[in-house]
Amino acid sequence: MQTRVSRRGDVDPFIVMEILRLAAQAEAAGRHVIHMEIGQPGTPAPEVARAALGTAMGQGSLGYTESLGLPALRQRIAGLYRDWYGVDLDPDRILVTPGSSGGFLLAFTSLFDPGDRVGIANPGYPAYRQILKAQGLEPALITTELSDGYQPRPDQIEGAGLDGVLIASPANPTGTMLDHDALKALIEAAERSNTAFISDEIYHGLNYQGRCTSALEITDNAFVINSFSKYFSMTGWRVGWIVAPPNHIDRVNKLAQHMFICAPHASQIAALAALDAADELEANRATYARNRDIVLKMLPKAGITRFAPPDGGFYVYADISHLGDDSLTLARALLDEEGVAVTPGHDFDPVRGGSTWRLSYAASTADVEEGMARIARFTERRAR
After folding, report:
1. DSSP label at 19?
2. Residues ≥6 apart with Cβ < 8 Å to 206
3. What is the largest CA-CA distance in the chain?
4. d(CA 76, CA 341)
5. Quick check: 277 pLDDT over 80?
6. What is the spatial distance between Cα 99 and Cα 239, in angstroms, rounded to a whole number?
7. Tens digit of pLDDT for each residue in 160-205?
8. Mapping DSSP to helix (H, G, I), strand (E, B) and coil, where does residue 201 land?
9. How far apart are CA 142 and CA 360, in angstroms?
């Protein structure tokens, strides 16, 4: 007799892991691989954050914190909303989570019942679909277009029979961003349809064309999820936060008590210190801005011209259909022939992803320059 299985565990693989496996094999064989496939900042956690954790570890054990998170950290996060957006946020609405993934689990569980339909942009971050499926929810893919920056339109939300909608700005994989008016129009469309609104703001701080707009500038009724992973260069520390509507914070807190107890104390100590590292963090952003300029300059030289210019984050989502009809096969060939790892679009768009790559420019500037030169050599051969 075989052990029974749940349909909720029937999630899709993360196809980029195949590229990572092949890249690791190439590196083990002595090849120099340029990593443009993963959303991993090429910069370390801020120096002051690492130092703060070392000091804290020398002072005693780091046990449980309250489930909401360290009060001092929540106060400082509230201060971030005042400084960045001019929003006066009650720290009691903030819950520190084990990465943004913990925030999505808490938001989805507090908002939705099994079978509810939650709209997400297609292309979009693949974990959205898989977390929703694992919770017995139905991911409703909203087909977005290059002409709209791959962002949903209000008419795709209003009257669409959605119980919720999740919007990312800047978005993964595209890096495109919604300005205040565009985000407001989406929120209002959701409100008119009694559709819960979740705003993924994990790439805030990494903006190059105008400033990022938080949903909290427009409404108190949205769930806002953020993390120290990207702007603060703390991916492996697994610490983020959620801002819940006033009528949800008690529910979210109780859920967190049972699901996680608390976010890692050590990571919270480091995150608190990272909020004082503005100069270092802005220097990191300047590096990504230079890398972005290199990619945008060199993509057309490589014959890749169909993409939405990224406003933030550190990705470009590019149409490479002129090179072939399977982005995974092409990504394997690029890695084999030129030693550059990129992410096939299959992960982000299960329908049209065979014609796209996501390129990350989070690596060092030297690697990004060399990676784009290698991509140009690859595309020149393929275009002949």
Report:
1. H
2. 170, 230, 231, 285, 288, 312, 313, 314
3. 64
4. 38
5. yes
6. 4
7. 999 999 999 999 999 999 999 999 999 999 999 999 999 999 999 9
8. coil
9. 24
